[in-house]
């Protein structure tokens, strides 16, 4: 009984895991799920593009997942990916439980931190995605790296940092975060901090050299090139997604916008945020500022390249630590018998605010999940429609896409042609037998867009076996 009391969050997470897996498996691929390296691959496993820096990333584990899915794509994709994602999320929640304990927080705080991380909506862009396991395992192995760093096992620390980085590049940031966080919690002194930061710099240099000497075909996309405006915009996104818990669909997705429902989803989360901010002494503590610096470092690679909602995941461990620190101050400021009593007012107790937050978080999670499922179903319906209307196999298809009026929102609300994967979703429906090649063009949505698309289609059919005109959910097929 004592064990359950001490590890109640782990027991709850393990209990919820089958439900989360069932929910995740309902989500079908959309958008870049059809073009990334985790999609089914039919190339030999041992080739340089799989294990070396190639294109824009060095992520061999993504390629291995794609190779495994390619062994039986109809059965394994995306189910295999979802299993990896759910397992990764559970491991990260357990890792945070261990991390919080290693930093000296109480059993209650460990349980609250791991449970909040597990259910907070900010994790959903990763948990409900198909290729998000790289972020999760990068964070998990970084947490393990920090735990062995606290035990002065430097070789294991360095190896684990490299392992995390091979899952996703931002894993490298814990080469700097580890000593800063340890210093904040008085696990090392200032001299050791400077020494270990220099080791972190050495790790980063070795990684850079390893990339430089590899045989590579590097492409730098314009969207990854930083500018002052983009960095500021990404920083605002980072703050919003990290600290504001709200139903993103009702707030940000224009066709679904409902500000009243967005407000109602946000209000129950405020007491917990208030509890975090009300601890005035917290902002005078060294550990608070080291946590904040670590949070900024973890987000820096994305802020200076591309920051999307799913990139919040790696920094949420530090948001959890800020909350842990606030709770710790609350505990230290109360006598044992007072901890069971209400704090400054009856409304803002730790337990009641936690309950409100979890209820709101689960409601938001459910809405985000439903939207993700609907986006995936839309892509599949369009793929089935295209295959049926085409009738028989074709080698190449030219797509004429009439643009949508509203942009997508993460992987929750994807525009029809992106859910369709620019036609690539049809390959899954044909068991990856056809079409072999896709070309496409995007037309602005105007009053004459349909006529333009039809005219262009009649021209392109002379050069291609088949033309698909994608207009919202509908697909018009032109064949020779």
Explain the overall architecture.
The chain is mainly alpha-helical. It contains 22 helices and four strands. The longest helix has about 40 residues. It is globular, with a radius of gyration of 24 Å. About 0% of the residues have low confidence.
In short:
With 480 residues, the protein is mostly helical. It has 22 helices and four strands. The protein has helices spanning 2-6, 8-25, 48-51, 60-70, 73-76, 79-102, 107-119, 124-127, 133-150, 154-167, 174-184, 190-213, 228-243, 248-252, 259-266, 270-277, 286-303, 316-332, 350-390, 416-419, 425-429, 449-460; strands spanning 396-402, 437-443, 466-471, 474-479.
Q: What kind of oligomer do you see? A: single chain
Helical percent range?
55-70%
Helix count equals: 22
Low-confidence stretches: 339-348
Order of helices and strands: HHHHHHHHHHHHHHHHHHHEHHEHEE
Radius of gyration: 24 Å
The end-to-end span amounts to 72 Å
- Can you count the beta strands? 4
Note the beta-strand portion: 5-15%
Mean pLDDT over all positions:
89
Estimated structural class: mainly alpha
Strands of the largest sheet, in order across it? Answer: 2-1-3-4
Biggest sheet: strands, sense, closure?
Answer: 4 strands, mixed
